[in-house]
Structures are given as structure tokens and as C-alpha cells.
Amino acid sequence: MTENEQLLARVADKARNTRPWGWASLPAPVDRTAPSRAEAALGFPLPPLLTELYRRIGDGGFGPEYGLLPLLDGPPSGEPAAVPQYLANREGGRKDPDWPWPEGVLPISHWGCAMYACVDCRSPQATVLLFEPNAGDADHAWYLDAPSLADWLRTWLDGTGWYEEDSEGPDLLPWADFARRTGRDPATATPPLHAS
Fold first, then answer.
1. Gap between the Cα atoms of 187 and 142, Å rounded
2. pLDDT tens per residue, range 3-44
3. Can you give the pTM of this predicted structure?
4. Which of 170, 174, 167 is nearest to 188 (CA)?
5. What are the residue ranges of helices labelled H in the chain?
6. What is the rounded distance in angstroms from the CA atom of residue 57 to the CA atom of residue 31?
7. Which residues touch 125 (CB under 8 Å, ≥6 apart)?
8. What is the per-residue pLDDT across 149-195, written as a single tens digit (0 to 9) for each?
9. Residue 49: phi, psi to the nearest 5?
10. What is the distance between the alpha carbons of residues 46 and 30, in angstroms, rounded to a whole number?
11. Residue 55 scores a pLDDT above 60
């Protein structure tokens, strides 16, 4: 069994046995065409591990805090779906250039208070970012949550994420590519965000 297969098995087991806030049950996995329809709407490919989560485990409803967002359609929990949320965020960034949304950065989980966990679909390892806009400035809103989607899932499985109440993990580092990916001034520095 490959490392990803082992990880998917662990995620599936926890997904069957725990519900994030707002989810009464684990939704069925997406149909075979959903990932390609999502990619067509987004204009970029989904990371393979993310596709497998949706195809094999469920259309959202598992993971930390509010859980993974559904892929294309709104869920019973009232959380937005990932693809429409990305498209709305990109459109919002075009209308308000002070708050650009980086191309290829897909929101996958809502933390509440307008915060999202997002996958950088353009990074080979599917880096997970934290969007935390409450500082009031887009240049200070993006942080590196996990080097990869696999690492992000492992922190949830192991109970070691920054969002855990007893976590004493390191401060989250700013996402260094924000300025480049949005065409903003790279001289703008983002201070570390204390994680907990």
C-alpha cells in the first residue's frame, strides 16, 4: 500500500467516525465526472490527492473544524462549495484590487470569521495556505498552513494542527508567493501569525 493509500484509509476511517461542526452525516463521494467539471470551471487541475478525497471519501463533511467544503454544490451544512467560492473570490478580487485572490488557490475548508484553508493547486505538493483576512489588509492575510495537503491531513488525523486548543506549534509563516502571484509589491512584508 502506498503512502497516499495509507493516508486515504486513515482519513476515511476518521471521516466515518467523526463529524465536523454543521454536518449531520458524511456526504456520498462525488460522481466520476465532478472533478473534471470542477477543473473545467476553475481552469486548472486539482491536486490528485484532493481529487481522491472527493471521489473516495465524501463531497466534503470531514476534516478539521467545519470540514472540507463540498466540491461543486452547496452542502446541507450551509457552507459554500469550493469551486463557486473560488470563482466568487477571484471576481471579488477583480472588483476590489485591494483584496486580490491568487489564481490557482482553491478554498477547501472554512474556519469561521471569513478564514479559509486553501490548497495552492499550482504547487507540486499542493501547499495548504491559511487565508486570515481579519487584520484588514490582503498583504497580511496569507500564511503557510502546511507544506502539502498530505501534511495538512496528517495534522488533523494526529490532532497536532495549529487550530487544536492545546497546540503549542510554531507561528504560521507568511506565504512568500502572495505578492508575486497577485502582482502586488513584493516589498510589503507580512508579519508571522501566532497560531494559538
1. 15
2. 999 999 999 999 999 988 788 889 999 999 999 999 999 999
3. 0.89
4. 174
5. 3-17, 34-42, 48-56, 82-95, 149-158, 178-182
6. 11
7. 147, 148, 149, 150
8. 999 999 999 998 888 877 665 688 999 999 999 987 545 445 555 55
9. -65, -40
10. 14
11. yes
Give Cα separations from 13 to 63, 133, 170 (angstroms): 11, 33, 28
Distance between CA atoms of residues 187 and 54, nearest Å: 38
DSSP state of 96: -
Mean pLDDT of 93-108: 95
Residue in this structure with the C-alpha cell 470569521, named with its chain if needed: 113
User: At which residue does the C-alpha cell 472540507 appear?
Assistant: 68
Give 94-110 as a 3 state SS string.
HHCCCCCCCCCEEEEEE
Give residue for cell 490528485: 48
Which position has the grid cell 504560521?
172
